[in-house]
Amino acid sequence: MINLLLFPIILPFLFAIILLFFKENIKVQRSLTCIGLLISLVAALFLVAKVKADGVQAITLGSWPAPFGISMVSDMLSALLVTTTILITLFVVLYSFTAIGEERERYFYYPAILFMITGINGAFTTGDIFNMFVFFEVLLIASYLLIVLGGEKKQLRESIKYILVNVISSALFVITVAYLYSVVGTLNMADISVKIAEIGQPGIITVIAVLFLIVFGVKGSLFPLYFWLPGSYAAPPIPVLALFGALLTKVGIYAIIRTYTLFFVHDIGFTHGLLSALALLTIVAGCIGALAYFDVKHIIIYNIVIAVGVILFGAAQMNEAGLTGAVFYLVHDMLIKGALFLLIGIIVYVTGTSNLRKMGGLMKTHAPLGWMYLIAAFGLAGIPPLSGFVGKLLIVKGAFEGGNVFGSIIILASSLVVLLSVIRIFIYAFWGDPTTVELPTTNRRTYRKMMMPAVALVILSVLYGVGSEWLIPYMTDATDVLLQPSIYIDAVLKE
User: Fold this and answer.
1) 200 backbone φψ class: left, alpha, beta (φ>0; ψ -120 to 50)
2) Helix H or strand E segment including 275
3) What confidence category does residue 113 fall into, taking pLDDT thresholds of 50, 70 and 90?
4) Between the CA of residue 414 and those of 322, 332, 407, 410, 419, what are the distances in Å?
5) In DSSP terms, which residues pair with 71 in a beta bridge?
6) For FRET with 462, which of 19, 128, 273, 322 sits at 20 to 30 Å CA-CA?
7) What b/e readout covers 70-105, taking b as 16+ CB neighbours within 10 angstroms?
8) Residue 71 in 3-state DSSP?
9) Residue 108 carries which DSSP code?
10) Any bridge partners for residue 355, and if so which?
11) 248 closest CA partner among 290, 301, 287, 194
12) pLDDT for 305-349, tens place per residue?
């Protein structure tokens, strides 16, 4: 038994509560938020090392043995996602010092971020399906505050849609968990897997699998349930958009991958075939959206939708190459989306608009921004040796091994569409004659401060791609648990 896996959940929660007492003191809020995230990051890195050395870590709370107590479980997949989440949040917080505005900072901006991280890390770590619902609600409640922070008309309009969709999906989540409990009589995820294996996944379990796909598909933006995402994500300020785009949809993706590799593995011809088909439709829908808009925010937001389809298509193959690619691409997408949204925020700050048609010539006035954006854009499109290439290559390999040649073609074609969409931003915003006047000295200082965390994330994403040879063993450990649920089950029930 080890409590280390609880630290990335408890520490942000503890610091969020402390911050509530310093509402008006922005300097204290900034300092405590950074300290809390740094300590959490250290704990998460230790957790990754512990899981690598000793395998899956599990603890059952309340002095009850599993499956009766609430289990928290950290395998390599959840440990990597928790670490990446804290890392991205730290850079977004540093970016927020100059990008969010003091008015928003005073209205519980940093506590909301830390509460949201508590929910995200809890969802990645929990070994109890009802507890997953609880952590989903924690992160959603915090996100409700972040999406309306500032009270602009567009934010309020889009937040209504965002809240309604999530309230309905949360109600369906509870109903689905109740159905599952009525059939298997347990909420512990390892025990659910054992019980379903004993009864051989009858038709009612397949129905429950589809209901879970709907619930998590809403939260992860799977076709056709992504309709709420573009407008809702484009409404809040850029730092909030970066957090949402890099982290929130990944919780839904993780939940689908976890349940579809742990629970619903006895009728993969139907369940995973459906997941594969919806993933391909998600890619196509995202490609259409990415090409249809001339707004920089919407173009990158629709690239989130494309990435959701790519990751879930890899997971649906249920072979080593496909799942390893999905895990690798999942972490890549968190890093690269965080970097791209921060860079997009700087472009909008410099030009004063998100409309591509009103931009131009930034390469002459802001060359470092142009080069950083170009590197991030190539990484997103999967140009070797950047991080997007390795994950997508493994997913395509897994699709070929699974006999899904058509899906492989869709994945490869989507890479060209992604490249076209992000290069279009580069051509419109950075080429041609400058359309903006030179920034005053104070704004130049702000620009440089905003660039630092964005550049750091771009460099991190490059290292993630270049260093893939050293990272693959970690991805393989994550894949082994997904392909062999007995590793996860033994770790939890033995604990």
Assistant:
1) left
2) helix 268-292
3) very high
4) 17, 17, 11, 6, 9
5) 60
6) 322
7) bbbbbbbbbbbbbbbbbbbbbbbbbbbbbbbeeebb
8) strand
9) T
10) 295
11) 301
12) 999 999 999 999 988 999 999 999 999 999 999 999 999 999 988
Give the integer Cα–Cα distance in Å for 254 and 259. Answer: 9
Give per-residue burial for 404-438: e unless 16+ CB within 10 Å, then b: beebbebbeebbebbbebbebbbebbbeeeebbee
Mean pLDDT of 421-449: 74
Amino acid identity, position 21? F
Residue among 97, 153, 177 at smallest CA distance from 342: 97
CA distances from 250 to 27, 120, 255, 261 (A): 31, 9, 8, 16
- The rounded distance, in Å, linking the Cα atoms of 402 and 394 is 12
DSSP character for 383?
-
Token code pair at residue 379: 């990484």
Alpha carbons 265 and 271: distance in angstroms, whole number = 8
Could you tell me the two tokens for 157? 């309009």
Q: Is 59 helix (H, G, I), strand (E, B) or coil?
A: strand
Residue with tokens 């005073």: 106
Q: What is the pLDDT of residues 248-267, one digit of tens each?
A: 989 999 999 999 998 888 88
**What residues have CB less than 8 Å from 28, skipping those under 6 apart?**
22
The values of phi and psi at residue 58, to 5°, are -140, 145
Residues in the chain: 495
- Token pair for residue 192? 């659910």
pLDDT tens sequence across 229-238: 888 888 888 9
376, exposed or middle or buried, with CB in 10 Å at 0-12, 13-18, 19+?
buried
Cα 244-245-247 angle, rounded to 5 deg: 65
Taking the C-alpha atoms of residue 54 and residue 464, their distance in angstroms, rounded to an integer, is 24
